[in-house]
Amino acid sequence: MLEAVVLAAGQGTRMASQQPKVLHSILGKPMIEYVLKALPEEVEKIWIVTGYKASEVESVVNHPKVSFVRQSPQKGTADAVKAALPNLSAKHVFVVSGDMPLVRKDTLDQMLSFHFSNALSLTFLVAELVHPQGYGRVLKEQEKIFIVEESELSAEQEKVSLANVGFYIFSKDILESALFELSPHYPKDEYYLTDVIGWASDRGYKVDMWKLKDPTEAIGVNTREDLAEAIEIMRNRKTQELMEKGVTLISPSTLYVEIDVEIESDTLIYPWVFLQGETSIGKGCTIYPGVRIVNSTLEDRVQIFDNSLIEEAYIEKEARIGPMAHLRPGTHIKEKASIGNFVEVKKSTIGKASKANHLSYIGDATVGDKVNIGAGTITCNYDGVKKHPTFIGDEAFIGSNCELVAPVSIGAFALIGAGTTVVKDVPENALALSRAPQTIIQKRGVKYFIAKKKQKCVE
Ligand code: UD1
Ligand code: MG
Asked: Is the CB of 120 under 6 A from ligand 1?
């Protein structure tokens, strides 16, 4: 049996944040979730060590294998593992840092099989880095391996480029002894887990290391700058993966795409697009520049024109949205429907092939199929206290600049004249019209222009 301990109790002082470090988001997910996902399947139970704002971390992580252990006060990485020790029952323990989101699952799988196939007592992950500053360095003297933390390196040791990544597999008996024999380090009196490497090596345990093939996996998040770097690397991995699946990205470096977004092949994405949360985009869609889509589903061949915002919406195949449209939560746009320039839709269903192409607000409405909603039409869904629904039947024609005062229902094939304020239900096939009668005063226009000219002469 194999268990894992995830270190997540530290304050993350260098982040200068009120939020625990491991909850900072990378492409829409807290960084600790990446670490949990990378753990090998063989890990049966995961103990997360929490401390700083423990209940915040505990309320965010929801994973079937996870239990929490508290470390208080936080006296270093070795002390954190010691807090979890009484709960451990497995013979081998994977210890990982919660602030290392870029390590891949493949890497940890390989490290684990290396550990077991060589019957090792301690395996730890290392990386050969061009800029190893900030990492503990791995040193070898005769047959002994040990780690020296950055703050304690001699000038000679500073040249060492082999860095400790912060992932370890220990046989439990090592932890049971070593964690009680380590000395604290100046100036914070912290106990370093890295000292266990030297402890075990000195005592003749079989200690070895597994080296990262891709050194970018070694980037740990200690500062905001590290966080930005980690986000960028993860974003690059994601855009790479999308292109491999057949998605065309005109400018991969300007696409912000979160980790759970799914996109099918032959979809074309223009520059400066933002795709967030649980968004899924079908085949052959086109997303034009400046679009942001959050927690939404697009079926095949949907087109989203420039600068539209789509939030928690469902868009059926071949619909067209935008430019400059806003679909708010609870919107369902059916097949081939069209939502055009400066149209806002909230908590509404727009039927098949229906159109609202210009300057409308449609809220709390159910719109049938092949309905035409003219420019400037709005549903008056809010009476200042409550929201009310609007129903529009199939093939109804709503002229421009109408106000539909909800609750109201317009029957199928009804016709609403331009400028009408609809306050009563309109039956099927009927015409509804409410307009002030137009007055014509002959030659009144001439009088106006003469007055205007005179005014100009005075000025
Ligand atoms: C650690 C390693 C260093 C390695 C680096 C890789 C030690 C002493 N040093 O340094 O060799 O190169 O990771 O990124 O281990 N934590 C606790 N309780 C504590 C202190 C820390 O749970 O009392 C947790 C933190 O929340 C964090 C992890 O342990 O998730 C690592 O701590 P951090 O302070 O980031 O260590 P580094 O300075 O990065
Ligand atoms: Mg760290």
From this structure: no
Q: Which residues surround ligand 2, an ion (CB under 5 A)?
A: 99, 220, 222
* pLDDT string in tens for the chain (459-residue length): 899 999 999 989 999 999 999 999 999 999 999 999 999 999 999 999 999 999 999 999 999 999 999 999 999 999 999 999 999 999 999 999 999 999 999 999 999 999 999 999 999 999 999 999 999 999 999 889 999 999 999 999 999 999 999 999 999 999 999 999 999 999 999 999 999 999 999 999 999 999 999 999 999 999 999 999 999 999 999 999 999 999 999 999 999 999 999 999 999 999 999 999 999 999 999 999 999 999 999 999 999 999 999 999 999 999 999 999 999 999 999 999 999 999 999 999 999 999 999 999 999 999 999 999 999 999 999 999 999 999 999 999 999 999 999 999 999 999 999 999 999 999 999 999 998 899 999 999 898 899 999 998 887
Q: How far is the CA of 222 from the centre of ligand 1 (A)?
A: 9
- The DSSP result for 41-94, as a single string, is TTEEEEEEEEBTBHHHHHHH---TTEEEEE-SS---HHHHHHHHGGG--SSEEE
Which protein residue has the closest C-alpha to ligand 1 atom 29?
Answer: 7
Interatomic CA distance for residues 360 and 372, integer angstroms: 12
Q: Which of 443, 440, 442, 410 is nearest to 427 (CA)?
A: 410
- Active-site choice (63, 115, 358, 388): 358
Q: Which of 34, 35, 70, 99 best tests ligand 1's pocket when mutated (most atoms within 8 Å of CB)?
A: 99
Whether residue 131 lies in the annotated active site: no
Render 413-447 in DSSP notation, one character per residue: T-EE-TT-EE-S-B-TT-EE---PPP---TTHHHH
Q: Are 273 and 305 in contact (CB under 8 A)?
A: no
CA dihedral 214, 219, 225, 227 (to 10 degrees): 100
